[in-house]
């Protein structure tokens, strides 16, 4: 992992993972205590669109394959087998076959087989009688014709066309295998998996508790006896709990830069890292309803943004400006800087951009004597509310008067999926640093997570073109072209990409924080407490 710039050398020492020594002999036992930023809508990862679900419930599950959990930057070269023993592509690159482990049991004692793989992905593709209530990643599998089985321990994904990225999508922390014999409704409240920890209880707005799976197929793991998440929506209160010793670790990638300084000043022994987390803060616009069905108003919004001011206010300068894909060097698909700055609104002269925005607003019928009155909807947690307040302040400069409309987590994603909003401040977490995931999930016509109703069939053709491309350099150039067009079309204006902190006590061993995906599937299976 790359070194992280110190925030304030005199006050704060931020460590990289390589600086944190790992003792040779792990110890078994202990309950790992973490606070949770809010109450998830359910326990079902496949129905969730936030890592508020992913973080506490991924320890219950396994994937077919997963990114190496101790290499900070996810890439195709870091994919490792998990429920699968091995995998192989056919000669035409249209069939991906997995040989499965034979020693895996579900937490209720039933054997894991290829039928569970088929059931899981049939549900995700909408091909089974049982349906997910929400299915935000259905678009990931649009190119899968069918999933077939050959006996109990072989499963194949047969594709309509080559899609090299499929393996990376299957390695994300949002791709667990579900049991065939448990209904989607049961998975929302009492999930059953094959993972290192078993579900105990989920009390909404209070806590989530997991216990060690003594029959885990990875022998000797997990080291911990259990994990307890205490739900504390107020970040300052949660941080005080960590400093006082109530918690062993903060909610991953949730500590702001100012709060991280507070942690280090009050508990100098705390181990803290700051990493990009592949989460963009962006504006979602209901582009099919007035007033934002007017392209001039959408373009004015994008031109009004002072991105550096957001980053300075929220992160003391530690954030990144980019397009849809995560900025370099952590992001592997980022547009070159000169290409990014050629996009309207990304140039350094903010006042010049805003003057152009005011002209567009006047063309649309607004001006000094007639302001546009709107609501800015956002989720009721700090990482959403804080930038929404800054946004409201910035768009005053272009004759827009906005009121903040906060929405509880359980209602937020269903609300915006219904397009029941006008303008929103949203955070888009990408489950893997992979263009297929980002483009199809967030911008394809008809995708459940395309919250803006953006639909451009010409760009979708480019989505397919880059998805099939096996030459990495050619694919990158196509990805840059697509990303540039998405920004020029004001599809979902990207304000900034966050860098955020995670802290843990020095007795917590073997933690890795990923640098290009918070949704990496981390399940604490080899974390241990040296108390």
TrEMBL record:
The keyword Signal is annotated on this UniProt entry: yes
Highest taxon, organism lineage: Bacteria
Domain Solute-binding protein family: 79-447
Signal sequence region: 1-23
Keyword Zinc set for record: no
GO cellular component, one term: outer membrane-bounded periplasmic space
Family: Belongs to the bacterial solute-binding protein 5 family.
Subcellular location: Periplasm
GO biological process assignments: peptide transport
Annotated SUPFAM superfamilies: Periplasmic binding protein-like II
UniProt KW keywords: Signal
Name of the protein this chain belongs to: Peptide/nickel transport system substrate-binding protein
Main localization category: periplasm
Alphabetical list of Gene3D superfamilies matching this protein: Dipeptide-binding Protein, Domain 3, Periplasmic binding protein-like II
Biological classification of the source: Bacteria, Pseudomonadati, Pseudomonadota, Alphaproteobacteria, Hyphomicrobiales
One Gene Ontology molecular-function label: peptide transmembrane transporter activity
Stored InterPro entries: Peptide/Ni-bd (IPR030678), SBP_5 (IPR039424), SBP_5_CS (IPR023765), SBP_5_dom (IPR000914)
Organism in which the protein naturally occurs: Bradyrhizobium macuxiense
């Amino acid at each position: 992992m790359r070194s992280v710039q110190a925030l304030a050398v005199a006050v704060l020492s931020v460590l990289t993972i390589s600086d944190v020594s790992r003792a040779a002999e792990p110890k078994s036992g202990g309950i790992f205590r973490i606070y949770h930023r809010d109450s998830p809508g359910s326990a079902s990862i496949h129905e969730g669109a936030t890592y508020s679900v992913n973080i506490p419930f991924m320890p219950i599950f396994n994937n077919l394959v997963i990114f190496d959990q101790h290499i900070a930057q996810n890439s195709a070269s870091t994919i490792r087998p998990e429920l699968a023993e091995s995998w192989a592509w056919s000669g035409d690159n249209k069939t991906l076959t997995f040989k499965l482990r034979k020693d895996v049991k579900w937490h209720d004692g039933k054997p894991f087989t290829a039928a569970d793989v088929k059931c899981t992905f049939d549900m995700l593709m909408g091909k089974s009688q049982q349906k997910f209530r929400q299915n935000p990643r259905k678009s990931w599998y649009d190119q899968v014709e069918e999933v077939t089985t050959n006996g109990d321990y072989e499963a194949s994904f047969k594709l309509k066309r080559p899609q090299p990225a499929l393996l990376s999508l299957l390695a994300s922390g949002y791709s667990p295998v579900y049991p065939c014999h448990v209904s989607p409704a049961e998975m929302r409240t009492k999930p059953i998996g094959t993972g290192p920890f078993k579900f105990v209880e989920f009390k909404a707005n209070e806590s989530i508790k997991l216990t060690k799976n003594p029959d885990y197929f990875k022998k000797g793991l997990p080291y911990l006896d259990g994990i307890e998440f205490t739900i504390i929506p107020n970040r300052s209160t949660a941080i005080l709990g960590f400093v006082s010793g109530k918690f062993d670790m903060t909610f991953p990638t949730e500590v702001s830069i100012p709060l991280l300084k507070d942690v280090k000043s009050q508990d100098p022994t705390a181990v803290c890292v700051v990493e990009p987390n592949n989460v963009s803060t962006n504006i979602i616009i209901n582009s099919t309803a007035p007033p934002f069905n007017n392209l001039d108003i959408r373009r004015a919004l994008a031109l009004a943004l002072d991105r550096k001011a957001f980053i300075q206010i929220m992160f003391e300068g530690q954030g990144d400006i980019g397009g849809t894909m995560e900025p370099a060097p952590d992001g592997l698909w980022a547009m070159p800087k000169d290409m990014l700055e050629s996009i309207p609104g990304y140039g350094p002269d903010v006042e010049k951009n805003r003057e152009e925005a005011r002209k567009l607003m006047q063309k649309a019928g607004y001006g000094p004597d007639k302001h546009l009155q709107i609501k800015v909807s956002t989720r009721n947690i700090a990482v959403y509310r804080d930038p929404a307040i800054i946004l409201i302040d910035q768009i005053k400069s272009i004759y827009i008067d906005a009121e903040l409309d906060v929405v509880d987590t359980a209602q937020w994603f269903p609300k915006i999926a219904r397009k029941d909003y006008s303008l929103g401040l949203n955070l888009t977490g990408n489950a893997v640093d992979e263009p297929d995931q980002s483009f199809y999930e967030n911008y394809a016509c008809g995708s459940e997570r395309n919250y803006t109703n953006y639909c451009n069939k010409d760009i979708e053709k480019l989505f397919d073109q880059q998805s099939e491309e096996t030459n990495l350099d050619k694919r990158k150039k196509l990805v840059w072209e697509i990303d540039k067009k998405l920004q020029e079309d004001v599809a979902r204006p990207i304000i900034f990409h966050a860098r955020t902190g995670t802290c843990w006590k020095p007795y917590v061993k073997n933690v890795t924080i990923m640098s290009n995906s918070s949704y990496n599937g981390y399940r604490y299976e080899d974390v241990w407490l040296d108390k």
